[in-house]
Specification:
The protein contains 13 helices and twelve strands. The chain is α/β, with parallel strands linked by helices. The protein folds into two domains: 193 residues, 3-Layer(aba) Sandwich (Rossmann fold); 160 residues, Glycogen Phosphorylase B (Rossmann fold). α10 crosses α12. It is globular and about 65 Å long.
């Protein structure tokens, strides 16, 4: 078959869809991968995977209706020219506009995969902002238009279809829950935690909704009692985002030696392997890829009892679930590992077991292909 995958950022698409593309190509399908920011390098990387790179334009965060209508028109033309048998649209805006365009172009099979509901469906400590409320209304309106064009809508966790569809009286043709996008268990192989001071690691954009402020507040409190403990932060600043950690705040944390911040790193897995416990106090996720990677490497996890996050931890077995926004309980669970260092390895081994059972990318991609009728 001709299969089109509609993504956004090329590097992220390569990182997260590589094994799926290879599996589709290996099964004899002709694969076209749509992205908005191809370079000569990423275009060649796609070629090396055996697929065809297709450029298109889409504003991931914009609210310009004329630009969005133009995106539908361009996608419809591209689909009409390529004539795919199947389109898989990933993320919110591609799922909405790509599915509408695919239906207009007469694509026989149309699937959308929402890897989380995004900022507009994320609870914040001080409640929803006016901007969030407006964006949610707009997005729900667009979903009502797009859902009839989607044969199956695929979610990663069990909470998202409830929060999007059931609570807003939206009707989907069919719903599937995938359970995560998975990780390559060979690339993210088990490694035993090193002896020495307990080192915690946070990986994610440095935004409020990712829990960065709870993480650094907890780090300050833990280091006041256990100065030998270490706290790593991997992720980029986004100062344009009102909920982002600011450069001066980051510098203060570095000056006070609260965190270790290496900046951009090429191999995240090495940093995970060099740490003891993975921490993600996020307010909402699809099923976080970073947590799956840490579990595959064999790290205990502290994360929030929130949509997507709770899919990764059996509380008290491979880590702990903590309430959103609660720094004191986060501190308590961090100090547990400091006072019980044997739990780092024991719970880390349990994480690896969960990763092998639930997050093996080969199993997940096979399930996804069955959902789309390709296996």
């Amino acid at each position: 078959m001709k299969v089109s995958i509609l993504g956004t950022v090329a590097r992220d698409t390569i990182l997260f869809r590589r094994e799926l593309i290879l599996k589709l190509v290996d099964e004899g399908h002709e694969v076209f991968v749509f992205c908005i920011d191809y370079t000569d390098e990423t275009r060649q990387l796609m070629h090396d995977l055996g697929c065809t790179a297709i450029d298109y334009s889409l504003s991931r965060a914009g609210l310009n209706p004329f630009a969005d209508l133009a995106a539908i028109y361009i996608l419809r033309k591209l689909f009409s020219r390529i004539k795919p048998d199947l389109v898989l649209s990933c993320f919110v805006k591609p799922s909405i506009y790509g599915s509408i365009a695919a239906r207009m172009a007469g694509v026989p099979r149309r699937f959308a995969m929402l890897e989380g509901l995004g900022f507009v469906f994320t609870d914040l400590p001080r409640g929803m902002t006016v901007k969030q409320k407006l964006l949610r209304k707009v997005q729900l309106f667009l979903y009502r238009i797009a859902l009839p064009s989607i044969d199956k809508i695929i979610f990663l966790n069990r909470d998202d279809p409830i929060d999007l569809l059931d609570k807003n009286n939206l009707k989907a043709n069919r719903v599937e829950v995938l359970g995560g996008i998975g990780v390559n268990l060979e690339l993210y192989s088990y490694s035993e935690p090193t002896a020495g001071p307990v080192r915690f690691i946070f990986i994610g954009r440095l935004l409020a909704e990712k829990g960065i402020f709870e993480y650094v507040d907890a780090a300050r409190k833990v280091k006041a009692s256990y100065p030998e403990s270490e706290f790593v932060v991997l992720g980029g600043l986004d100062e344009a985002n009102p909920g982002g950690l600011k450069k001066n705040q980051l510098q203060k944390l570095l000056d006070d030696r609260v965190i270790i911040y290496p900046g951009y790193v090429n191999d995240v897995s090495e940093w995970i392997a060099g740490s003891s416990v993975f921490v993600l106090p996020s307010y909402r996720e699809g099923v976080p890829r970073s947590t799956q990677e840490a579990m595959a490497i064999g790290r205990a996890v502290i994360t929030t009892d929130a949509p997507g996050c709770r899919e990764t931890v059996v509380d008290g077995v491979n880590g702990f679930l903590v309430p959103k926004f609660n720094v004191d309980i986060l501190v308590d669970k961090m100090t547990y590992f400091i006072n019980n260092p044997e739990a780092v390895k024991v719970m880390g081994l349990e994480s690896r077991k969960v990763a092998v059972d639930k997050f093996d990318i080969d199993k997940i991609n096979s399930k996804l292909m069955r959902v789309m009728g390709l296996l």
